[in-house]
Amino acid sequence: MINLGALLRAQGRYQEGSAFYKHWLTQFGTDLRLLLNACHCWNDNGEATVSIQQLEAALRQAPGNQALAQELADARLKAGRPDAAVALLRQLLQIDEANKETWVRLGLCHARLRQLPEALDAFNKAQQLDPGDPQMLANRITVLKDLGRFSDAQTLIDELTQEQLLQPDIANAIAGLWMAQNKLVEASQLYQQLAAQRPECATHWLNWAASLRGLRHTVAPHRILQRGLQHQPEDLELQQALAQILAEMAQSAALERLQQRWARDDNAMKTAHLFSQQFLGVSTAPADSTTLATKARQWEARCQQASVGPLWPDQLLEPLPGRRLRVGYLSADLCNHPVGRFLLPVLGNHDRSVVEIWALSCGSHDDWITKHLRQRVDHWLDVRFHSAQQAARLIADLRLDVLVELGGFTGESGLEILCHRPAPVQLSYLGYPAPTYLRCIDGWLGDAVLFEQLNGTDQSAHQQLCLEGGYMVFDSGGELPAPQRNAGPRFRFGSFNHARKLTDATIALFCQVLATNPGSELVLKSISFREAAEQQRIRRRFATAGLASERLILLDWVEGGLNHLQRYSAIDVALDPVPYGGATTTAEALWMGVPVVALAGRGMVGRLAASLLVHGGQGQWLARSQAHYVAIASQLAAAGPRQAAQRLALRQQLQQSPLADGQRLSRALEEHYQQLRAAVITC
Length: 683
Hints:
The structure is a single chain. The chain is α/β, with parallel strands linked by helices. Helix content is 53%, strand content 8%. It has a seven-stranded parallel beta sheet with strand order 3-2-1-4-5-6-7, with helices on one face. α26 links the parallel β9 and β10 (552-555).
């Protein structure tokens, strides 16, 4: 009987196993082994509360039973009550401090609570009791990684024997450490080995795909995730990762089919899944804004349930007169990323006699842009290795007046931190092409062009804070290369946007432009073109849409910002994609003297290029319809290839526009910050 229940659980037939145990426990309720197996099954089936009821009743009959108490701690952890589990485990350790399994469980509970030093201590104690346990070695490496103590983790690894290094749990922990250090090639190779050893483990497929995505591969992660789903077809993590890859590949029809298959409880959805859905809903797979708003606010409410309430009132805010305004910018992208690059002129032009600036980093990348950003702030705080609540507490202790989040629903953005209200004024800006809909966001920074075509839900999502002259300024971070033309005799259209923006609608529009101008060529460049299979996939899509292969030119990725900008010499006119337009690529093209043809779409996501064109004084290239888009592109083509003098003239026009006026943008931001913070005082 016990074996049958265990077999049902092993096959993933948790509901059948649950019913089986509920029936037989009524007759053999005193059998300890049967009860423990039943609790394992109930925990797996999302019925941890049933386990808790049964175990508490059993402990009343046998109050000193260690096995029952440990299982009760497991059930409490499964039920989302790690604090209660910790309390019980501490009691058990007072009785028997040498029980390894209790220390292991205590470490897991502290890890769930993001109490990482306490988790590490518990795992160390368990390791002392069983020095050869590979799982404890793996746990210690993982916690050291999560604490940011990379060198300590490596020291521990260096002490392992070759046999220990081959243990799957230890190898998995080492691969995780390499991922955290951005050693993605090494990590991908190790995850490949782990997936071959244990193909039933969805996590190995996920991590293998994630490491290759970090290397800017698209096709290979897609194939890996499909293989993983062959082994675990109902795994939500694999489904979600596949959805992200399908979005990267602009396969909206396949993405929609996958989403329709999902059987999920939105209330139990992980934060990473919610972020993915929100971003896909405003970009690749447009969703109803009302639905997005509802889900975002439900997530916010769940985050706040675990909070002690708004944190900023815990601090005594100093009066504004006689001191600088304290402003913090929160981002995972304070590096060579569009957010980091567009933040450079903001920070560089802030009036430091008026504002005191904190950079709050929750990202893993550190490069030459990071160095420039560090030089343009008063303080730098790394919150990457803290939970959202811990980071919110640290930020609240800074007594900021204004906290500006720059990532919205993008990976590792730190948006959850704002749910705990560490600052009296909290704003969204720059890095997310839509509202977040969260109640904890007091304002949404943009401009009149961006906000012009919002639907009703987005219009009322937040207070709109318009920046006169446009919401961004371009700064290359150094000397710009001279604008010039380096191409063949044919007129060349081009797009340097990421291949994820090459939707079916975009390809059809580009092909229409090329069909109307039969002597022209199309040049595409994307960071994903590092992968030969991705280049072949893009070529097939354009061939299917009717563009002759000899008219399509794909440029390989080149390292270095200046090398990238020089590639604009290969095109005469840039074509903006739909419905998700380009911001960085639009700014770069214009500054390199290349006109950009864009469609004034709906929502912020469809008006990024429009904002830059209008505020750069080039509104003549902004189309009202697709027919108008083709007409503008054809008019530019009729004028012939753009030579160096024309390109330089365009750059000079931009230099006189608001798009080049960093002081204008920073003063506008400061004015909003001052007004919003002053309003808090009067409340």
